[in-house]
Predict the 3D structure of the following.
Amino acid sequence: MRKNANDPHQPVSAEEGLKRLSAGNERFLNGTTRFPVLQKDVLAALTREQHPYATIIGCSDSRVPPELIFDANFGELFVIRVAGNVVSPEVAGSMQYAGVHLKTPLFVVLGHENCGAVKAALDLKFSNVREPARIELLVQNILPSLEHVDEHAEPAARVACAVEANVRWAMRQIAESPEGRARAAEGKYLLVGAIFEISTGRVRFLE
């Protein structure tokens, strides 16, 4: 029997999930998105339970809505958003829920170009520019990722390097968590990083 790609209860592998995200971003870029209207039948099915195929850890930036840039339907993505896509205790708790209870096979850390939180971390590290207390607590989560960022690089290149380094730092934190190690040992999940290019709309998946 052929699988129904629109069935929210149909299990999806991590590899298939990554293909869906890539294809969805291509539709977003081409202006051929599939979900412009409310799909009441899908919502009715989701009132009972949810089976998202991917967990997206992204930035709160209003220009980076994962459901739109991946052309994803209701119930397909479990989205966790916080400024700078940092792995705070609350974010870690949400990821644990996604892994333990929803069993999403794919986890994506989604950064974006010219991230304001990353810029604030660069300003704090290299120019000692301070932010209000709670913002600075968030920015402190990004500082460890900037260890190898060149202070003297051209500004745009420095920010681009820092954005990618911050994504890789979040991935490392996830991979080295007890849950990440356990699921990796079981071979039951895939962890990838990505950068959303606001200027083009394209998502670049990291190697």
Remarks:
- The longest helix spans residues 155-175.
- The beta strands are 54-58, 77-81, 106-112, 190-196, 203-205.
- The mean pLDDT is 92.
- Residues 14-205 form a domain with the Beta-carbonic Anhydrase; Chain A fold (CATH 3.40.1050.10).
